[in-house]
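Re: that chain you flagged

S.,

Sorry for the slow reply, it's been a week of failed gels. I finally had a moment to sit down with the sequence you sent. For the record, here it is as I used it:
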Amino acid sequence: MPNITHLQFLESEAIYVLRETAAQFTKPALLFSGGKDSIIMAWMARKAFHPARLPFPLLHVDTGHNFPEVIEFRDRRVAEMGERLVVGHLEDSIQRGTVRLSHPLESRNGHQTVALLEAIDEHRFDCLIGGARRDE
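Prediction finished late last night. Pasting the structure tokens below so you have them in one place:
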């Protein structure tokens, strides 16, 4: 492709993948924590489907151990985008008994998978979209 930079090529590739994913699956969701990687993924998704809303919701698995400012930022960003946010709460999994902590101060990060699988099941998602930096 003449006259485009490597970065422009990567961006167009990401937009293609997002559009194809939306076309091929019935109920996809975009993983969104409000961190730098998921902010970029949400930005790319907006570019892929502009001027329409995203054809899928954003999905966050909340461990309950985020700083309040992180959750406020996440919610503010989603509101600014005018998109839908689905939140799976690890605390709900603990209350249901599907997650059992060995002690109250145990890291919850390793238990996020249970809350994620429960959110997938509850909302019937058939595809999750995530992103990672190529250098990781």
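What I noticed first: The mean pLDDT is 93.

Talk soon,
D.
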